[in-house]
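help with this record:
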Amino acid sequence: MAQSSLKFRLVLVTIVTLASIRLQGTTIHGPITDVEPDSVSWSALVQVYSPLFGEDYRAGGKSPGGFDCSGLLQFTFGQLNIKLPASSRDYAHQGQAILRDSLVVGDFLLFSGRSAQEIGHVGLCVGLKDGQIIMLHSATHGGVLIENWVGQSYYERRFLGGRRIFTYVP
């Protein structure tokens, strides 16, 4: 039963994210080899991260069997031959800074660590709906998962902003 619920959530988030990209006016391009520089195929990205749901959290983990937050994103984008930082704090120097009310699907979400004001956690925005901001991340409380962080005090008080590094095509 839990696995069918996870599959339902995955399908729902995929539909919402693809619809969000289309509503933002993104045009459909050819195969991934024909996309503009700094753009990423969202459907290819979803195909890479979907099988990783449920992988364990592991501090410093960068491969299936155990991921930390930056290791998950580095591995996922790496499967598409895109190099990302190995540390969550290094995302502060990537792309363009984005305020919370300007986030779009595909933006990276930055949070402070437990005991510091510097970046200690990173996730990827995979959905926006009815005030929710749904992120893909690897967390100590569930490993690789997608969840709405809006309203969760842990994330609310630690949110530092977003970074837009790529544009996405369906």
Remarks:
- The two ends are 30 Å apart (CA to CA).
- The chain has one domain: 2-169.
- Residues 1-8, 10-36 have pLDDT under 50 and may be disordered.
